[in-house]
Amino acid sequence: MTAIDLGLPGLSGLAGVPTADEPQKAKDYKSDQEVRWCPGCGDYVVLNAVQSFLPSLGLKRENIVFVSGIGCSSRFPYYMNTYGMHSIHGRAPAIATGLATARPDLSVWVVTGDGDALSIGGNHLIHTLRRNVNLKILLFNNRIYGLTKGQYSPTSETGKVTKSTPMGSLDHPFNPVSLALGAEATFVGRALDSDRKGLTEVLRQAAEHRGSALVEIYQNCPIFNDGAFDVLKEPDEAAQRLVNLEHGKPIRFGKGDDGAGEFGVIRSGFGSLDVAKVSEVGEDAIVVHDAHTPDPSYAFALSRLSAQDLSHTVTGVFRSVQRPTYDDLARAQVEDAKASKPADLQSLLRGKDTWTVV
User: Fold this and answer.
1) Which domains are seen in the chain, by residue range?
2) What pTM was estimated for this model as a whole?
3) Are 42 and 220 in contact (CB under 8 A)?
């Protein structure tokens, strides 16, 4: 196995995965299957972005695997000309964990939805993140159950009227980014399906990361939750709502006269963050984003700026830090065991804790 050199600093997440023999293009990642999502579905945009992005990794297609659970987004592996598996509802992270641990020569990706990942699959997701398995997890969030025809999901807003909540949902929704950071995920990002440039940049950084990388993607469902994110796509509204993160730069947004944004993120009491006008607090009060801060509390505070009404929606990379990965540690443990005490199957079979039944 050879390490990859793409001229990108810190591209450790792909170390050990064989490179392609010749340059590839987006069309090389398109399978012969007819793409079947509803017209206008945000999944088309994400699929196209991923297919266009993957050639930049320089990997062999046979060393890339997409594992999905159940849901509209989970049809993804069918449309990728790579290896893939349409697995069990909510269990894609568990299956992908086994694959990543057994096969360090693969680049393993998980595609899941807000229902698949955060309801029946909630436990699998948080334990994958805390273990820091070397996976890239794309969480498509349309705030609804689409495949099963419009029930509310774990990310639906309080009061959401759906087929399963005709009088409005009583549940308080998950914030997937907050959830991931609470599980101490080493990489967490968020992007919009309509923001091709922003989505591609977050995907690029996720691919470079060695460890669990979760990317939440706001994605429109035109049939059961159409327009859920329209306020983030209309130019004037988006300027006042979208807070884009760039490592090492002050967190500013809005239509400022100086072109840098009239609003900024400032530190508030008890370790939290808030939004203020730059003209009122001064440039020095604005937080400079540091995605590499070891303590996840700063990134968590950033995630809490995002509310159900999308008034301040933070996008970009919240956190990117290094920690030993579960799969690397598991393989090293096995090698240590082999070196210290060679396996002897007969000794195991005839050990003290075995019985002969006649």
Assistant:
1) 17-242+317-335 (3.40.50.970)
2) 0.91
3) yes
